[in-house]
């Protein structure tokens, strides 16, 4: 596929000196395998259940990170085209591993996307589609599989939608709150009064303004230092700082125009007075937002380098399978809105996916096939010689990593984004994307090869005989039927209890809108009207 948003910038760079070579990785893995073999000979089972595979796995998810704003994916900032937004990702992971050019989330906001990442299930099947749903105990998370196989497990989260209330802590020996405000108290997710709800909203808002990266680096490093030399480990790190508000530390705010004095630098993100159609000044403000966003990405990339450095300090970097991804992107009025959880266009569902395991996965390889966030969990387990739960919908990408192929498979996405609006869905197979927008009689079809920015859809009636429409409707129907037979989620205690007046107040403040905190865009997209 020749998507202009995904062309690689191949400017030469020198990898950091602490990137180890193939020979050292092989030697270290041989010593580790020998230790496991000795344990088996002496009558004990290996801690990982196999004598092969990585000594550790690190899964990193960055909140609100678009693939097409990373220099690893060919992006260059219009104001500073020679300055990379993701130098550590480029050098330490993409140049040393496998980059998937077309990786899709299951939705466009944090909570259900991470459930899909960690369960391998689409939203319809894991059932956590909105607040305050919680994961049913019948579904198994990735950490539970590793823990049951004897691996050490540590999780580090920094945004409120990764709270243990929703079920994310299951399987982790340690699940550490690295957020900038005190959101770890479970009582905040079970309030009984309007005052306590407003306290929750205020804490959630303040979480956007803090810096969480250093706390993540410290907590992860402390955990790594506690691990034994022969212990296998699974680590999960959720990085929040790229999420708005866009306030990069001064040393990383290198893309902004120093002479800019507009509202994008002085106002709270959600209060920005930007409504379509945008005039010339609005366009300048949006460009300033993008520059701040790029600064946040650069800051996050720095912290990524620090986290990987913690593994290198133990001598484990090359023996660790590292996976870098994101839950969703952010839009900058490409389809008349800002933020996310407004729709399922490419800017919010196309996210990075890079895998590195030095000496085992090919270096510098790029995969063009469409894959899903739901494929991550079964891929990691496959590479570790562990069986995935039977109910997993995603599939292992190991054949693609090894240069083989996989049969083409449609990728579903959905968005249950406001209590008063039906579910929005999308379906991607190859370059064809079908989108079902609530309250529209017709389905939108995009050819992503010819129309990568989704500006000129083909519109067809729901009862059309078009094969693409029929396939999408069939797949959605099968997912719904499977969900009806399954266990679904556990409805939150507040469902059916919240007063209408409070519901209206929360909607006004955005708590039940975009990422449970909509920045102000209230209307459905008007594409194709």
Describe the structure.
This protein is α/β, with parallel strands linked by helices and 529 residues long. Helix content is 29%, strand content 16%. It has helices at 22-41, 87-94, 110-119, 123-126, 142-148, 194-207, 213-226, 280-313, 346-349, 376-383, 398-401, 467-485, 500-509; strands spanning 56-62, 98-104, 134-135, 152-157, 174-177, 233-239, 320-326, 331-332, 338-339, 350-351, 353-356, 365-372, 411-415, 424-429, 432-436, 442-447, 458-461, 489-490. The strands form four sheets. Strands 1, 2, 4, 5, 6, 7, 10, 11 and 12 form a nine-stranded mixed β-sheet that branches. Strands 13-14-15-16-17 form a five-stranded antiparallel β-sheet, with helices on one face. Strands 3-18 form a two-stranded antiparallel sheet. Helix 2 (87-94) crosses helix 8 and helix 7 (213-226) packs parallel to helix 8.
Could you write a compact summary of the structure shown?
With 529 residues, this protein is an alpha/beta fold. The chain has 13 helices and 18 strands.
Features:
9-stranded mixed sheet; 5-stranded antiparallel sheet; globular; disordered N terminus
What is this structure's SSE topology?
Elements: H1 22-41, E1 56-62, H2 87-94, E2 98-104, H3 110-119, H4 123-126, E3 134-135, H5 142-148, E4 152-157, E5 174-177, H6 194-207, H7 213-226, E6 233-239, H8 280-313, E7 320-326, E8 331-332, E9 338-339, H9 346-349, E10 350-351, E11 353-356, E12 365-372, H10 376-383, H11 398-401, E13 411-415, E14 424-429, E15 432-436, E16 442-447, E17 458-461, H12 467-485, E18 489-490, H13 500-509
Parallel strand pairs: 1-6, 1-7, 2-12, 4-5, 4-6
Antiparallel strand pairs: 2-10, 2-11, 3-18, 7-11, 8-9, 13-14, 14-15, 15-16, 16-17
